Amino acid sequence: MSQEGINRGGGALFRGDTQDGLLHRAFLRGAGFSAEDVRRSPVIGIANTASELNPCNAGLGELAAEVKAGVRAAGGLPLEFPTISLSEPFSRPSSMYLRNLMSMDVEEMVRASPIDGVVLLGGCDKTIPAQIMGALSAGVPAMVVAAGPRPVSCFGTNREFTVDDVWPLCEQRRVGELDDGAWAALEGSVNVGVGTCNVMGTATTMAAVAEVLGFALPGSTLPAAASESRRAAARSTGEAIVAAARRGEVATELVTLESLENAFRAITAMGGSTNALIHLEAIAGRAGLRIGLERLDEWSRTTPVLADVRPGGRYLLEHLDQAGGVPEVLRRLGDRIHGQAPAAGGRTWSEVLESTPPAQEHPSLRTVAEPVAPRGALRLMRGSLAPDGCVMKLAADAPARHRARVVVFDGLEDLHARIDDPDLEVEPSTILVLRGLGMVGAPGMPEVGHLPIPAKLHRQGVRDMVRISDARMSGTSTGSVVLHVSPESAVGGPLARLRTGDEVVIDAGSGELNHCVPEEVFAARVPAPPPPLPPRGFARLQARHALQPHEGCDLDFLVAAQEES
Ligand code: FES
Ligand code: MG
Questions:
Q1: Interacting residues of 41 by C-beta distance below 8 A, sequence separation 6+
Q2: Gap from CA of 201 to ligand 1 centroid (Å)
Q3: Which numbered atom of ligand 1 lies nearest the CA of 123?
């Protein structure tokens, strides 16, 4: 069936004086809608991902009510519906394993339903990328309302306790340095309200991407989850989607190489998550575009870091919001930004910035003349260990070149069995390698690339080591970690042939990741075996069709036909 054949006519189905029209209206009347309600136009779907299995998104019910009020105020008919909701901590084997499935749920529900546009309510890491991917493929007017960051909390003497403060405490517990009382207190201190992680992790990074691409209203990324400004933004989004539907604006028009560049430069300037690389490439793919490693690396090297926010920096997201948030970041990036790219609400970013007065100065947001760092922290690299690329988030004090012996772990079981073994042959300069944890191998590329420091080194005060893996890491983590090695070892990438004792050289300056084994010796080795093909279901579909990280890890049959770029 053709795409047009699948789409049965949007909200117009409610409006005709036909059997179809009558039945559409009649069914809604039975659910409590009035005769006037069922004749409102346009019909706006509200895809809500509020779920008790996803506490980060638990506040979305309240925001859905605001969106509805906005849609009604503008004359439209709002109809809320659920989709899959993916929690970062609760989804097994990883939330990334289900991102593509969620994108299919969104796409098919939007396309199958009698609606003229959709508002996507998301938050926790994979939800907004999946929603944007689905909406792009469905080809409807679409806007995003993000859950917003949860409040900061207190722990001990720390009055600004954020999610990234949790990981060092977990490490302390693992090596026996955190007592039972503190451990019990931590449980009640990590999350003290709904909303997404309260640092520039993946959730806030992807909300910012939605804002810069023109899906979320300008200035809507950073206000706190339960704030009046977020509720107001949700209401305004309801009004704006009605206008977008009347204009006939479709999501695919928002995603161009220019808008993708704006999004990547903005998140680079804000010290955003490594996960954004994969999601941006997947979003590009749904719009028939390919960004590519070379462009991403070029944009990273030519964009200064302006935001001094956690997890890498000193200030809180609320400080960055007070400093003007995403629009002010774009303004300060000046001619690095394509001003003609659309912002949500029907104006270009140039028009939005012209009409937005500069916010009050705050040290959480610097200028290009006095940046936090002159260039972005992400280095896109290639080499004999990663022919299709990998990424490293460089700490400010990290050495540009590191050559050392590796210790290789085959998957999480092997890692957990040996990492704290007192006889493990490691020293602070050793490179720890974790493989078998890519999109196909794990499956679902879990956020475990930030592998723990061996206990015996941790006790000596070692807090960072160079690590390499085909997994991802949490956007709330920091450290000298090479991630997303592509192709992953489970599909025969060179990582599968690496052995403990080999030497590896990482050169962030030249952008290379190479092993130092003679090529003929390396090629003759028997690779680590791939996992068996799952016998059935989505696991089998994904194992057969998942693309590698440099292609966004989408399913190959969901990517749009590519335009020349
Ligand atoms: Fe949900 Fe961080 S765990 S946003
Ligand atoms: Mg995360």
A1: 11, 14, 15, 75, 76, 77, 116
A2: 8
A3: 4
Whether this prediction's pTM lies above 0.90 is answered by: yes
State the SS3 of 283-308. HHHHCCCCCCHHHHHHHHHCCCECEC
Q: What is the pLDDT of residues 332-383, one digit of tens each?
A: 999 999 999 999 999 999 999 999 998 999 999 999 999 999 999 899 999 9
Q: Is 220 exposed, middle or buried (0-12, 13-18, 19+ CB in 10 A)?
A: buried
Assembly ipTM? 0.90
Name the CATH code of domain 378-531 (choices 3.50.30.80, 3.20.20.10, 3.40.190.10, 3.40.50.720): 3.50.30.80
Residue recorded with tokens 């000193």:
314
What 8-state DSSP symbol labels residue 12?
G
Give CA–CA dist 68/74, Å, rounded. Answer: 10
Q: What is the phi-psi region of residue 27: left when phi exceeds 0, alpha when psi lies from -120 to 50, beta otherwise?
A: alpha
CA gap 92, 256 in Å, rounded: 33
Q: Does residue 388 sit in helix, strand or coil?
A: strand
- Cα 380 from Cα 300, distance rounded (Å): 9
Instruction: Pinpoint the residues of the chain covered by CATH 3.50.30.80.
Output: 378-531
* Closest CA to ligand 1's atom 2: 197
Q: Which residue do the tokens 């335009």 mark?
A: 563
From the list 109, 118, 113, 110, the residue with the least C-alpha distance to 78 is 118
Residues touching ligand 1 (Cβ under 6 Å) are: 56, 88-89, 124-125, 196-197, 201, 203
